[in-house]
Description:
Its EC number is 2.7.1.107. It comes from Citrus clementina (Clementine). By secondary structure, the chain is α+β, with helices and mostly antiparallel strands. It has two domains: about 200 residues, no CATH class; about 210 residues, no CATH class. Helices cover about 35% and strands about 20% of the residues. The chain is built from 15 helices and 14 strands. α6 links the parallel β1 and β2.
Amino acid sequence: MDSPSSTTRIAARSSMIDSIRGCGLSGMRIDKEDLRRKLSIPEYLRVAMSNAIRRKEGEPPADTCQSDVIVDGNGVQPPEAPMVVFINSRSGGRHGPELKERLQELMGKEQVFDLSEVKPHEFVQYGLACLEKLAELGDFCAKDTRQKMRIVVAGGDGTVGWVLGSVGELNKQGREPVPPVAIIPLGTGNDLSRSFGWGGSFPFAWKSAVKRTLQRASAGPICRLDSWHAVIQMPSGEVVDPPHSLKPTEDCALDQGLQIEGALPEKVNCYEGVFYNYFSIGMDAQVAYGFHHLRNEKPYLAQGPISNKLIYSGYSCTQGWFLTPCISDPNLRGLKNILRMHVKKVNCSEWEQVAVPKSVRAIVALNLHNYASGRNPWGNLSPEYLEKKGFVEAHADDGLLEIFGLKQGWHASFVMVELISAKHIAQVLQSLQSLFVHFQSKSASL
Length: 446
C-alpha cells in the first residue's frame, strides 16, 4: 500500500482539515507539464497494453505485442514514475466523470481505466502481461516501466479492495514486483484511504488536489498492509449475489485441528476472497448489505457521501438496530444464539472457542485503525489494559485481527462518537465463525 507517510501508525480519524490541506498552494505549485512527463508511459507501450486488454487473448504471445511496437523501445527514455489509474466513475457523485477527464489530461488517456469498461484483473492478466512480454524480448523501456509501475485508485473502500485483490494475484503467480497502490477517496467511508493518510473525503479544490496526490503517489514510501483470506460455506441451493471480492471455489476444507459442534450440511457452496479493512457478521452486515442493494436499485438516491450517510443511517433505524428489546424473534436479539466462534490467539497454535457476549448483535473483525468513516472502535488502549487482556498494540501490518462487538444501535452510536470503546472480544491470528466463515492472514506488501 503506497502511503505519503513512512509509518503505518496513522491517527484513527482524518478530519476535514486533511482534505482541505491537500487543496492549498503546495498543490498549485506542481507544474502540469512536468507532472505529465513524469507519469506518462511512452505511447507505443500504452497502445500495446490497451490493445492486449481489448483483445483479451490471455497470456499474449510474442507477436501479439511485437506487432504493436512502432519504435525501438531501447531508444526511448522510460518515465520517471509510470502510473495507471483505476476510477469508479459512478463514485463521488457528479465528480466521477470530471475527475476521469482531469486524470486523462495529466497522463496518457490509455493510462486511465474506467472500471465500468476495464476490470483490474484484465489489466493484470493482459496489460501487465504484455508489458512483461516486451521486457522479455529485450525492450529496456518496457522493463523499466514495469519495475517502476505504480497504481492509483479513485473510488471507495470496495473499489480499492477490488484492485488490491487483483494486483495481489501477481504474488501468487511470481510476477513481482507488485505495484504499490495509492488512493483518491471517492467513497462514503474511505477507511482504507484514511488509514494510510490519503484523506477521508474528496477535496473541495479537487483539480489542484489531484495533482498533489499524483505527485505524492509517484514518490511516496511503501507501507505494508495485511490481506485476509476468507472462505464462506453455505448450504447448496441458496441464491446468492456475491460481490467482486468473492469467487466460487471447490476447496473449502476446514482446518483438521478444529472440532466443530453439530453436523455440517452434506452439500455446500463455497466462496473465497480477500479483505483488507474489516469483516462483519450480524446487524452491522445486514444494514450494509441492505444499503448496497438499495443504492444499486435506486442510484439516483446516492448522489454523494453526505446523502449516502443519511440513507445508511435511515436504513439502520428501519432494520431494528435501535429497537432490540421490541424484536420478538430471540435469534435476532443477539448473535450468541446462532453463532459459534473459534480463534487462534497470539503465541498459540491451538483453536480456542470464544464466548459471544449475550448482548452483542454485530461482530466485526477489524484489520485497520479506521471503521465506519474513520471511527476507532477498538480504542486507544493503555499498556496496562493490553497486558491484562493479553493484547498487543494494533497495526495494519501485524498479522492480527481485532474482533469486537456492538450491542445495539445506542451502544454503536456512543462507540461511533468515541465516547466509549466497543466490546473487546479477541485479538487473533485466525478465526472461524460458524456460520462457517473462515479467514486467515496472507500478509502482503501492497
